Amino acid sequence: MNSVTEMIAALRKMYRVMLAPAAAGVFAIELLRELGPLSGWRLPGGASIELHFFIFTAATALATPMLYRSLFASSHRGKMSIALATLYRYENNSMVIAMMTPWMSLVASIFAFSAFYTIGIFFLGIYACYFYYPSQRKIEADIRIFRVKV
Predict the structure, then answer these.
(1) What's the pLDDT score for residue 100?
(2) Residue 141 in domain
(3) Is residue 92 part of a domain?
(4) Does residue 139 carry a pLDDT above 90?
């Protein structure tokens, strides 16, 4: 990465590449379910599997990105500055972790989870999509926080 604008453009492209297929899949499955030809597949031991998927979704949307950020900050604590490429790698990795959440929404749609877990997974997916969008303001704040050499 040579500049902040290139970094933001690359992160936004990756964001769209990771989000678009999952969002299109959820939209298509929910549309088919509403129109009638698809009712979803039920898995044996459904309640247990739904709970585990919900926990995994909460981990990918909330816990793991926070842990990754604290580990990144801790590993660069004593440094006066870090390279822009290092920040890009961190932002990309945290976005990849968080963008697994919309794919869990797709799984919840395909397997017709109960309403409680489906809504919870969808809300976590919306949160991850909103919070981890690589906006100019967010990236500039991280550049200041982590003392990036630009």
Answers:
(1) 95
(2) yes
(3) yes
(4) yes
Query: pTM for the full model?
Result: 0.87
Count of structural domains, the chain: 1
Contacts of 70 (CB under 8 A, 6+ apart): none
Has residue 49 been placed in a domain? yes
Domain assignment of residue 103, yes or no: yes
State the CB neighbour count (10 A cutoff) for residue 29: 19
Q: Which domain holds residue 115?
A: 4-34+45-149
SS (H, E, C) the chain: CCCHHHHHHHHHHHHHHHHHHHHHHHHHHHHHHHHCCCCCCCCCCHHHHHHHHHHHHHHHHHHHHHHHHHHHHHHCCCCCCEEHHHHHHHHHHHHHHHCCHHHHHHHHHHCCCCHHHHHHHHHHHHHHHHHCCCCHHHHHHHHHHCCEEC
Distance between CA atoms of residues 99 and 105, nearest Å: 11
Tens digit of each residue's pLDDT (9 = 90 or more) over 35-75: 877 666 676 666 788 999 999 999 999 999 999 999 999 99
